[in-house]
Each structure stands twice: as C-alpha cells, then as structure tokens.
Amino acid sequence: MTVHLIKLCVGIDDIGHLARLQAGRLAEARRRGDTAELKHVTRNTPRQASEILDGGSLYWVIRGFVRVRQEVINLRPAEKADGRPACALVLDPKLVRTELRGFRAFQGWRYLAPEDAPPDAGLFDEADGDVPAEMAAELKGLGLL
After folding, report:
1. Each residue's pLDDT tens digit, 29-78
2. Could you please report the per-residue DSSP string of 119-134?
3. pLDDT tens digits for range 34-47
4. Based on the structure, what is the number of domains in the chain?
5. pTM, whole model, 2 decimals?
6. 73 three-state secondary structure
7. Contact by Cβ (8 Å): 3, 52
8. Is 37 helix (H, G, I), strand (E, B) or coil?
C-alpha cells in the first residue's frame, strides 16, 4: 500500500521559487558532469521505504499550505556534509500542484496516508503562477480553504 511523505519547504516563497531552485540544482549537476537528479537529503531513512517507492510522493508545505508534490522515485544512502549518514530522497522533477490545504509547522518529515493527501490540481506551469501566501492565509481565515 502506498504511503507518502510530507515536509516543510523552508525558505521557499511559492511553487515557482521551488521550480527555479530545483532547475538550478539540475543545471549545476549537469555542469559538474554529475547525474542530473533531484535529491532531498534527510537525516533519517523512512522505515516504510517499500510503501513510499510504491507510488508515493513528497508533499511540500510552502508558507503554511500543502501546495505541490513530487513523486519519490528512489531512496538511497547518502552522507551529510559533516560525514554523518543520511538518506537521499530522489524526486521526479515534475511538480504536481495540489489543492491548497493548510498545514501547521513541524520538524523533519512525516508519513502521509493517501486518504489524507490533498487531491492533485494539475502539473505546475510557471505561466500559471501561484496563490500568494498572504491571499491563501486570508482565504483560510474566511473559511474558503
């Protein structure tokens, strides 16, 4: 059975900002001659790895709202900059918008059951833009999100 992960996207303002950052990382990897893949390195390896790799995604919380997800295509051992062991979540570069859903801050990542995951709202296109964080907060306050 599929299981997802959810994580705060710290320092990111919107989906476009995440897309540009990830595109830059892929371009930098190509420039260095490395394999061009998106990796998010985390301290702990998920114990439910097989369930995540069975179609699971990483849902990103941006400015207090789940806004986008990326499929997790691999989990592999990695090393932090200080030499400590870590886990690399290898992500599909496609950003899939989700319906906005408020989510409180937390540390690290959490498991997310498929029935709790917000529905998809289509692939992200930079030309479409994103709901600004202030507007999303106001809509939530009005009970519209």
Report:
1. 999 999 899 999 999 999 999 999 999 999 999 999 999 999 999 999 99
2. PEEEE--GGG----HH
3. 989 999 999 999 99
4. 1
5. 0.84
6. strand
7. yes
8. coil
